[in-house]
Amino acid sequence: MMTFELDEIFVEETSRASVLAHRVIEALSTRVPIRFVADARAATLADRDAADPFGKGKRRMVIMRRRGAFLMGCPAASARYACCGYLVLALASNCPMDCSYCFLQDYLADNPAFQVYSNYTDVFAELERLAGGSRERQFRVGTGEFADSLAFDSVTGLAREFVEFFAAHRNLTLELKTKTDEIDGLLAVEPRGSAMVSWTVSPERVYRSSERRTAPPSARLRAARRVLEAGYRVAFHLDPIIAYPGAEDDYLRLAEEILDTVAPEKISFVSMGSLRMTPALRTTARRRFPNDPMLLGEEILCPDGRYRAFMPLRLRLYRKIAERFSKAGAPVRTYLCMEPASVHRQVFAAPALAPADARERLCCTG
Amino acid sequence: MTTLEAEQAIRALASARQLQDPYLKRWLAREQAERVAILEAARKLRLRTGQLAVALDLLEEIAVREGAGIDSILSRESLQRLIQSEGPAPARASAFLAELRAIRFPRLGATIRRLDKEISALALPSAVNVVLPKDLNSDELVIRISVRSADELDWLMNVLAEKREGLARLVRMLGGDDDL
Fold first, then answer.
1. Domain boundaries, chain B
2. I need a surface site. Which of A240, B42, B151, B155 has the fewest CB within 10 A?
3. A111 close to A93: Cβ distance less than 8 angstroms
4. Contact A342 B133 (CB under 8 A)
5. What is the model's pTM?
6. Closest Cα partner for A107 from A259, A287, A285?
7. Between A298, A310, A315, which is nearest B175 by CB?
8. Cβ–Cβ below 8 Å for B108 and A310
9. B65·A293 Cβ contact <8 A
10. Rounded alpha-carbon distances, angstroms, from residue A122 to A71, A116, A225, B145
C-alpha cells in the first residue's frame, strides 16, 4: 500500500457532515492537522511565497463541494488530433505523486491543492443522463485525468462506490487510471465487466528518473494481474513515451513484461503518447526538476505548439512498440493520444477512427 | 583566476552585455571551473547577449543530459577549435552555437544530415526544391517546382517520375522508417 504525506487537511463546513469527510477524518485525523473553513476555495490556491508552490499545494488536502460539472470531455481532445472519445470525471484535482513531466504542474499551477469533492454522488445523476440518453452507445468514463484514480482510495473509498454504480449500467465503462498498486479496495467488489483498471507504465529508467512516489513498474504490473484475476478489465498507457537514447530497447522490454504479466487477449487496450509539453509546462517542469535528463530529450516545437520528439524518432518508437503488440499472439487494441490522424496512418498503416467509433471499440470487451 | 576575480569578471561581462539576472545567477551558481570556462568562451567569441543566454541554456542542458561538467564540455576539440581560433568572432560565435546545438540534439542533427545527403544524391534540377519540415517536426515533405513554360513543366514532371523511388525513400525516412 502506498503512503502519501499530507501537511494539512482543510474541510469546508458544508462538507463537514459528508461521508467523504467522515472517512478522511477517521483515517487521518491522528496524523494530519484538520481545519474547518467556511469557504475552502482560498485553501486551494498556490502559496506564491513557497519555494515550490505546486509541490506544497499537493500536500494540502481540501475536502469541498465541487461547484461545476463533474463529467466532461477529455481536456486533451481537439480537432487537431485523432481522439479516443474518452470522457472524464473530475472527482479530485491533483495527485500526491510527483512526476517531473506531469501536465498538472502547469494545468493546476494556480490551484495546486489536492482537492477531493464531497458532493461526488451528484455525478451519478449526470451519468444516468449520459447512459439513458443513448442506450445503444458505449461510453468510457475515467477518473484519472486530473488525479490518480486510486492514490488515496484506502482513505476515500470512492473507487468501490463507482465500480458498483457502473456495474449497474451496461453502456458505461469506468476506467480507473493509476500509477499505484492501491487495489485492495477494488478486490472486495464485483466489477461485472463494467470497470477497467488501467496503469500508466514506464521503463524502469523513466520511473527512477521522473516518477516520484509512484509504485515501481513491476508492482504496477503485479497489481494489474491481481485485479484481472478479480474480474476487472485491464489496460495500459505507455504515456509519456520518452525518446531517450536506449528508449526503443527499454520500451520493447516493457511491452514484453506487460505481455508476460497479462495475456494479450486479456488486455483491453494499450495507448501510446509521446512526451509532449507546452512551452509553459516545459519551463515549469525544468524549473522544478532541473536535473532530470528525461526532460531534456530531443524535443522540438511541433505545429500544435507543443514540444515533442522529432517526427522520425517518434514515429519509429511508436511503430516498433505497436508492432510488438500486434505480434503478441492475439490482437491488442492500440491507439495514440494527442497525435494527428497522419501519425496514426503512419504507425498503423490505417486511417484513425472517429472519436465516437474509437470510444465504442475501446469499451468493447470482445 | 581566483573565485572572487572570476565572479567580478563575470559580473562585469554580464553588465556590459545587459544579461538578464536569472542567467547571471545561474552562471554564478556553477562550479568555479565551469564559470571560468564559460567566461573564456564568452570573451573569446565575443558572444552577444542573446548568444550568451542561448549558450548558457544549451550548456546546462548538455551537462544534465550527459552528466558532465560544463568545463569538460567546453574542452571538447570541436568547441575549443572555434573558441581559440583567430577568425572573425561573429562567424565563430555562430558556429559555436551551431556546434552546441549539434551536441544537444545529436540524433536530430544526424537524421537531418542523412536526409540532406539523400536529397543531394537525387541530383534534382534547381527548379525542383525539396524542403524538409523545420527541425523534422512533421512528416510532411514539401516538393516545390518552379516552371516558366509548359515544356519545362513536362520535363520536370518526367524528372520527378524518374526520381520517384528516391523521393518515396525520403518520405519513408521522415516517417521513421530508417535506423536513427
1. 3-104, 107-175
2. B151
3. yes
4. no
5. 0.92
6. A285
7. A315
8. yes
9. yes
10. 10, 13, 32, 61
